[in-house]
Amino acid sequence: KMRTLLSFVFSQLVIIILINFYYYGKYHAIIKLVWRRNEMKFAGDEYWEDWERDILEEQEVVDEKGKPFISKVRVANGTVTPFDQHPEAESLLNTASRLIPAIDFLISEDISALSYNPGGHYAVHYDYLEYEEESDDEFMNEFGNKMATFIMIFQKATSGGGTLFPSFGTVVRADAGDAFLWFDSKENGEMDMNVEHGGCPVYEGQKVISTIWICIMSDFSRT
Questions:
Q1: 125-149 pLDDT, tens digit each
Q2: Of 20, 32, 34, 146, which is most buried, counting CB atoms within 10 Å of its CB?
């Protein structure tokens, strides 16, 4: 009887272990995802929806009047450099002009250099600026809104850091040495609603890019 009892207990233990293995395998992916989301908290994460995460030093941005302020909508290290003050910036401008001769890069905002460390991101937004009141942005008032955005990749993050385009359901994961461009405005100068985009959170490594924003006036400067 003792041997029969031990055999019964052993068989029940085997069944319990097998059931545990089954459910562990079934829910392991879910548990791992929940753990990853809990671990990957970052400053400004309240601006990201769950679906954006799944396809997925603070810096100044501008408010509705064109005034600069610090916002956690974008978390990055960055600097802005005039093209005519540094040969490296001028070289980037010349390279962009050579790559896309159909676009006049001469009338554009100062080149923006950005690095995103782990936790760095840029919530979904438009580069085209819309102000509720008359803008104090003298440069935009003189040269017009953003016509196009040109991004050059110098270093790709090990994990995360892609550029999300929700309207197209895609994330661009460009390699170091790549560049890509999109138009922020339509031919009539109005904002293109399809090019809302965001910089996905960097989980590992560092993402380093430079951005040139070409102004609408540059398109008319040749006419």
A1: 999 987 666 666 677 777 788 999 9
A2: 146
> Is residue 67 within 8 Å of residue 135, measured between CB atoms?
no
Task: Tell me the sheet residues that pair with 181.
Answer: 150
Phi and psi (nearest 5°) for 215? -85, 155
Domain ranges of the chain: 37-215
Amino acid identity, residue 220?
F
- Listed in order, strand segments (DSSP E) in the chain are 59-62, 68-71, 74-75, 77-81, 111-116, 121-125, 146-155, 159-160, 163-165, 170-172, 179-183, 197-199, 202-204, 207-215
5-33 pLDDT, tens digit each:
556 555 555 555 454 544 444 444 444 44
Closest alpha carbon to 77 in 55, 102, 50, 59: 59
Tell me the CATH class for 37-215: mainly beta
| pLDDT computed for residue 144 by the predictor | 80
Q: How far apart are CA 38 and CA 191, in angstroms?
A: 36
